[in-house]
Design brief:
The complex is a heterodimer of chains A (about 130) and B (about 300).
Chain A lengths: L10 H6 L1 E4 L3 E6 L3 E7 L7 H7 L4 E7 H12 L2 E2 H12 L3 H17 L3 E4 L6
Helix pairs in contact in A: 4-5
Chain B lengths: L19 E3 L3 E4 L5 E5 L5 E8 L2 E10 L6 H11 L14 E5 L2 E5 L6 E7 L4 E7 L4 H12 L2 E2 L7 E6 L2 E6 L3 E8 L2 E7 L5 E7 L2 H5 L4 H11 L3 E10 L2 E10 L6 H4 L3 E10 L4 E10 L8 H4 L12
Antiparallel strand pairs in B: 1-2, 2-10, 3-4, 4-5, 5-9, 6-7, 7-8, 8-9, 11-12, 13-14, 14-15, 15-19, 16-17, 17-18, 18-19
Classes of the chains: A alpha+beta (about 130), B alpha+beta (about 300).
Chain lengths: ~130, ~300
Amino acid sequence: MNPESEPKLTYEEQLKSILVPNANAVVHQDGADFIDLKIHLRYENWILPFVRLFHAREFKIYRLSGLGLEIYRMIRTQPRSVLELVYYLRDTQKLSFFEARNLILQYTGKLIRNGLIAAEQMKKSE
Amino acid sequence: MEKMADKPPLCQAFQHPAFLVGWHDFVFRLPLGWELARYSMLEDSGQMFFSSEDGPKAQLSWRRVKAVPNIEMILAEINRRSRPEIKEDQEVPELTFVSAGIGIIAYAGKGERFYASIFLEEARLLAEWIFPDFEPDKLETIQAMIGTFRPNLPNDRGFKTYGAMGLELQIPSEYHLTALQALPAAITMSFENKKHNSIHAHRWGMAGLLLRNDSILNFYHRILYQRKHVIKDACKQSFFGYEGAEITFRTRGKIGFDFLLGSWWRGLGTSFFVPEENRIYAVEHVAPHLRKLRYTANDLIPKYGSSGGLTT
């Protein structure tokens, strides 16, 4: 879908979005202070012959550590809303609400783009 | 005009250090939970937007005026123009005026937009506020906030008050605010005087993660080194009883080939870590080689109270 045609989320919808781990991102290596997540890459149909010809890589591994790992593990244990994570970061790091919100949105946005987690929107009636 | 009985200010709402706004010509304190969401750097006319967790809270705009304005008439006109559904021959709901400090608050009815206006005679500046959805219980908070609104005049030391997003500073009046870089949990305010001497003040959040069991001296040294400053001397120093660092450095170049050809300027950087807030504060003063460097965190950051929060 063209990004410009995607419906924009309102402020409340954004905070109420539920973050869930992507089932396709499998744990490759799980250490005490890091986790490696392996995700299979998808190529467009027209490019598949070239992928086979040049033996392009089929998967990508992302390593999470530190606070990012902590947030990912929270999402993996139980699906969380963005607001819950914002409160968590605000309280643990003594940040203001907007500082925590911006940091969480930046980080979870990056995880979503990399396909490690997904965001489910709450229905309007909820 | 209806004058409300003097009420004690909402002290609790103004104790947190994160909520002072000090700009070119005015200073005020925000209620608890409000944050500066958008701002303009212009001195003669500009806007600020404030939000809280619940959504937008207020809009402040300011402009220079030549004569003393009739605030009540201006507010009545704004009220009339904000109701396009009411025709010219129809009556507009009347505003009730309430004084708050040097300002006036005007409201019409529950759930409607309401306004406040303040004229700062010293700066010839008219500050106009717009708030959404009037509720009687909101009035006390707004009144307390407007009550703290005052002109940003130099104090007896000749220092003006600046602040935004938790950073609260006392800056010599010869320096002017030139930039505010607001990244999440990393605020930088920059000031410059006519001779291009500059002061940069920082407030970093998530200090525990930034320090990673390292000392504040090493952390601050790393920061200055990454900015391509030449470090001359570094030592541990305590500020307000907190662990800190004092670093002298040399730097040159602001524009283009100044980096290669410009003269070296001396800089003095001071930084300290406040564990109660989980924040690191830093101030850098850069001036020509011969100029005596004077300003450290002790001079520019107001003293800390016993609670660990800034007090003015």
